[in-house]
Amino acid sequence: MAEHSTASSNEYQANLETFYYDNGIVKLFAMATVVWGIAAFLYGVYVAFAIFMPQLNFGSEFLTFGRIRPIHTNAAIFAFVGNGIFMGVYYSLQRLCKTRMFSDMLGKLHFWGWQLIIASAAITFHAGITTGKEYAELEWPIDILIAIVWIIFGLNMFMTILKRRERHLYVAIWFYIASWVTITVLHVVNSMELPYTWLHSYSVYAGVQDALVQWWYGHNAVAFFLTTPYLGLMYYFLPKAANRPVYSYKLSIIHFWSLLFIYIWAGPHHLLYTSLPDWAQSLGTVFSIMLIAPSWGGMLNGLLTLRGAWDKVREDPILKFMVVAVTAYGMATLEGPMLAVKSINALSHYTDWTIAHVHVGVLGWNGFLTFGVLYWLIPKLWNTKLYSKKLANAHFWIGTLGILTYVIPMYIAGVTQGLMWKQFTPEGVLQYPNFLETVTQILPMYMIRATGGTIYLVGACLMVYNLVKTAKQGSFVKNEKDQATPFPFQYIKETGERQHRWLERKPMAMLFVATIVIAIGGAVEIIPMILIKSNVPTIASVKPYTPLELYGRDMYIREGCYTCHSQMVRPFRSETERYREYSKVGEFVYDHPFQWGSKRTGPDLHREGGKYNNSWHYWHMNNPRDISPGSIMPAFPWLLTKEMDIQSVSAKIAAMMTLGVPYPVGYDKVAPQDLKTQAKLIATQLVAEGVTDVKESAEIIALIAYLQRLGTDIKAK
Amino acid sequence: MAQYEDKLLDHAYDGIEEYNNPLPPWWVYLFVITIIWGGLYMFYFHIADVGPGSTDEYTTEVRDYQTKFASTIAAEAGVNWNTPNFEIVSDKAQLAMAKDLFAKNCVACHLAQGQGAIGPNLTDKYWIHGGGINNIAKTIALGVPEKGMITWKNSLKKTEILALASYIISLQGTSPPNPKPPQGDLFEEKK
After folding, report:
1. Whether the predicted interface score ipTM is above 0.85
2. Minimal CA separation from A233 to chain B, in Å
3. Which domain holds residue B148?
4. pLDDT higher for A689 or A671?
5. Is residue A507 reached through a cis peptide bond, with omega within 30 degrees of 0 on the bond before it?
6. A282: which chain B residues are within 8 Å (Cβ-Cβ)?
């Protein structure tokens, strides 16, 4: 079959050229994939235990849950899957283009740049340096670095495509191109932030606009980082591993373009029943439903490619991994649209159901596809056979068991807690008014989940051993020889060339069309939200934060409170009974960035202001279990002693003023004084409530000020 | 799908060939149906504007509740917490329920045996807002929001508040360990 490769160019056999593929760069990315994969799983297992054993942070701010969880998510997405993408792209692109990568140098820059980003992410997150926007938590200098490295990758990819020896681009490359351009757009638009120190910034968007941009980004990071590049990998590695032709070229075309166009619209399904205007929510719902078929197109093309090879699947662990990966993809992409239906979302949102859903995707689809590719690739790179097929099979079964042990308890936990939140007694009052009761109910599920994660990790360790042994027994082929004829400058049209065939030989046109196709959905949703005033009715009583409250807000972001708390009371009676008045869009206009959250491991905090007195918060933050026995919220004792950094206050206020927050002219100069005055007041109250040793300059004062302000701008009934 | 004969296209990429199979018909139907559904959905909720929006749903939910529980709501609303005239509850089941409620809602501030922490000791004879069923029930119902005691009448029913107050009275003189020092004034029940 391999001989078939350049059928149309038989006549040019004469100028057969010899060249070498760069396997060195593939090896680097493969090793990074494995190393960061293990790291991401380790962090995952750690947070899985820490969520029900809050003392696991050993009282250290650097290990607190709110900071570690983003390390886990970012590591899984950008370090593990990210390196996996690059590994697959650098291997397949060279072969599909019949050429070496354009530049070894750019490849190295790309590789080391990306690892530098990951290392700085780990360091800054541990240190609490974060923007507080999920999956885009990195601060502005790192955002710029990402942009540069991403462009280097793009340049290397496009130059390689331009010097290809194969006239037409295979479907895998379409996916690479579309993913690259979309991620570029998403990253640039969502990372618009105004720096106020070398390591800190505020999002230029506020409230609902920030929420919309963020979830347009967040959803499409799933789409164009976790999905489309991996579909590209599937289109290369699955037919290769199965040695079967792809089922349907037509299906590739249709599902590729429809996926691009529709995916980008679906972001608002993360904001159902929030303060986002209804029209945008509805767009999120309908485009999610319309996504089912395009997503399934990919799954079908993958699974149907294996028709007639099922006997092989039973034998071959690589194919087994791939089949489960593609099936997990199909399940996740059916479940996703279901979760985007408002009535289902009303139950599932903020619960562990979402966590189950994403883990079917990442552990099943991304994880298993990566494992399959690695088992196929490493023996090729080292010119040998896999060290142990038996171990790989064991990994497959252990991994599958790990996934099941992870997701089943999370589904149970999600549904159970969701129902408990909504349960009324026959007399019409909340059955479980105490939020904590709904948490303790599902703790056993958390424990089983942590076991599931551990099992998955054990499987991955088996793989590492197996791959290392494989590499040891072979010898690495740094430059792999191949031959091909360049295609002639003049193109003799295929008889009856369809338009798409034309596009397939015009990479720049393909890039252009893809850009247009992905730009439409985002533009239609985001531009009106920013320009049309009626989307955000103003509320006169909503005032900017005081400097002290703003300081506290930044602490809230720094400590990752948003990983467990939402600030968005949805318009259900079960929520207004529990949290009071549902949230209004006009209440968030000074929230740079928004903090609506996506998970309620603890209760919603939007109406927290005035609910308890100051000393309650003081003792609760010092150790939640002193106040709420059995609470799983981590303790934050360092906040009681840490001094506020008054230096940065003027810069914070000045930045907010630049962003249009209406402080009086010159207020940034007096802000530090105002901060101290308010802090003194709160400290005095704390003393009056019987707290001894309060320091006026302690950070806890600012956090209390913020919590007491939350949701108090409008008078709740 | 067996009826299609797999025909190979005459191109291949790095040895990967593709079949010229048509789109699976059920897949096409699925796609078309979801698109039509999407159009209808947008039409129903936004263009024709017939379907209820998020806040309309909420209004309906609240209205339904108000109709269904009209009598209870009226009864609760009719309670005059400021000048109450209640009888202490001695029913065992009611007190057991109150004990549960106390464990769920009150221990955070008053501790498990009522000895007090953020909130005052409830087992001594000293009361900031007065002892006895009427005063205690009133404090629980209306709360002292500025001092950190929650207004409970929004989440607890009258019977529950009365049971709680009676339960607290039953704690009088239990002298649990590490009590908070007395606050407020000595209160003796007038017989």
Report:
1. yes
2. 13
3. 84-186
4. A671
5. no
6. 41-42, 45-46
